[in-house]
Specification:
The chain is mostly beta strands. It is built from no helices and 11 strands.
């Protein structure tokens, strides 16, 4: 598979297992068919270098974090931006969704970890 114009910084499978989501320093998030290697739809333009990517348990949404200190939530099927969450003051380097899908955790370059409710994006800690 090729299509990113810069370093690939994250990759995760969608739950059904036939597609992967990647993020890159080229400022995009992309969905690929794992067996054919073909890109699905248009790239999602994060707008800054992207360091991490996660997928909700139901496989309907993608989370991406990067140099602008914001988490972006994307719709998998349409590739449309659904939400933007703030709360970090430094570059986001990691994102994870809890096994039950209720919470999102993200970590930044300053050592801060933010836990949020997945449905509302509201910070818990």
């Amino acid at each position: 598979m090729s299509g990113h114009a810069n370093m690939v910084t994250g990759i995760v499978y969608l739950p059904e297992g036939d597609r992967v989501v990647t993020c890159s320093r080229d400022q995009t998030v992309r969905v690929w068919h794992a067996t054919t290697g073909e890109e699905e739809g248009e790239p999602m333009e994060h707008g800054t270098l992207v360091n991490c990517v996660g997928v909700t348990r139901d496989g309907k949404r993608i989370l991406s974090g990067g140099f602008d200190s914001k988490l972006r939530m994307w719709e998998v099927e349409t590739h449309k931006l659904a939400e933007v969450w703030e709360g970090h003051e430094r570059t986001i380097y990691s994102v994870a969704i809890s096994p039950d899908g209720e919470f999102v955790a993200s970590g930044d370059g300053g050592g801060r970890i933010v836990i949020r409710e997945a449905k509302s994006g509201g910070e818990i800690r």
